[in-house]
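Case study 2.
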Amino acid sequence: MEEKPKTMLAPSEIEAVGSMLEDLKKLRETLILETAELSVDFNDINAGYLRSAKNLLHYLSLRRHDLRPVQQRLVSLGLSSLGRSEACVLSTLDAVIRALTIFLGQPLPDTEVDTIPKVDILEGPDLLAEHTDQLLGCVRNDRNVRIMVTMPTEAALDESVILNLLARGMNCMRINCAHDTPEIWMGMISNLRKAEQSIGVDCRVFMDLGGPKIRTGEIPPGPKVMHIRPKRDEYGTMVIPARIWLTSEKSPTNAPDGCDGQFRVSNSFLECLRHCDEITFLDVRKKSRKWTVVGMTERGCWVESIKACYVVPGTKLHLRNGKPEQSVCQIADFPPRPGFVLLNRGDSLIVTAQPGPEESTIQNPQGNPLACPAISCTMPKIVSQVRPGETIWFDDGKIGGVIEQVEQDRFLVKIQHARAEGSKLRSGKGINLPDSQLSIDAITPEDIQNLAFIAEHADAIEMSFANSAHDVRSLEKSLEAINVAKPALVLKIETLKGFENLPPMLLAAMRWPSCGVMIARGDLAVECGYERLAEVQEEILWVCEAAHVPVIWATQVLERLAQKGLPSRAEISDVVMAHRAECVMLNKGPHISEAVEVLDNILNRMQSHQRKKRAMLRELKLAHVKL
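Prediction:
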């Protein structure tokens, strides 16, 4: 008779393995019991997400336990540590239990039959890939992670913008409905369809609802004056002249990239300009200044200035050697400089429900009247919903403070975070209240106006500031009210409340034909704190993988490259982390085409090294180096 192989473990170690096996069996029973006790109506879940929903519930139950003590022990036995079980929780746990049972020579346990079958180990990644294809479209060029790009206004006017992006690797086009108009959006979509036919590829259209964004109200504008100045070195010597764009007063065009200022002038004056012509004028300080014509196009004219100047509407421009009747023109009217409130640490600021004077009076916590700057907000109802002691952030976290005093139509803020030299708070800047329990409608009247257009033209709708499952159902009811079919849904997680309510929101989103999640890291970082952002985005990735729901990694990805043409080292590392998502979003910028090309290159390189949390052990050239 063949002798059975003997274990190398001591009796005490075998006893420890047996105890661990019993603990894992109890853990499995707990997962099944806790999932069954939840009041989740699986009849509401889309058929394609039934097993994903069940796996999500198993994962949430698993993560209610501290598994660290058992993980290292499992690894020492050559077994899974359960650290990569997100996509197939029960099957991974069953595989470990089965291996330990065989190791101890015990009979294998019977596996119960569930009405919703569990996700097998090999099926988990396949389900996520299937749902990703449904939402983001099929991949091309063998790159698994898609690239999404937010469209600038120029994409509706210039066909080459989208054509270049598509050629360099864009898979999804994002239109932010907080900006532009339906006519502009339609122009973007039309140019995309032309580009698709030209290149022979498909691209999904995502449209972003503006949502209930709280912003600072109007601030009285500054003077109508533009300061034009060349670039100088440390010694004050001019090194790069200022570039000014002159365009037609009747049919103006936006300035190309690299413009330091633009002005509208008469058509007759523009027609007289020739290369190397000189334009003279007196600026608002009565300083004599000269501009030199350096470029002519059908859209306008480039001029350069080697000296600083302050220009106001009505400034007279004189063309040397021009015809007498056409040699003089006035600069047309232009908007004033944006107003601002300068805030330093320790300053007080009044936030009001309605616009009022630039300065107001409020009682401080000691009961004394306090006069300080005042600014309104775009959502008056929140003024009465905040409480003393809660934090408030302005302008993407650049300015922060604590609410000290609350009255019916205003509250007092003590500024605690600002730049050493003071920070300028302008109108239209975001306000975040992470500690406040706000009652705000998830769908704004502007959103409802845009829903019909979005449902007709977009492949997916992105829901901004999604905070609860109720918000998701509100959007669903809004679409039903206008009798349109539901497109795919993307939940933008950009508040602390939205993050904390992500699991029930995912279950609500699984009622839709297709769904995804966007990690909107801008507002989310302000809400949860920059120190915690890395932890929060990790948790979102884990929970969404358990739900087999694709994730879009967004905000400030390669931002410096897109804006300035040169990436930072931190940006490159960020993209490497972003590879763990199913899609990476880039925001618009002068160098966006280059950013898409760089992102495409990095994503292609990284996918052979890592997928989610699993290292891909491809052959390394470095391993062949002679030692």
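The chain has a mean pLDDT of 90.
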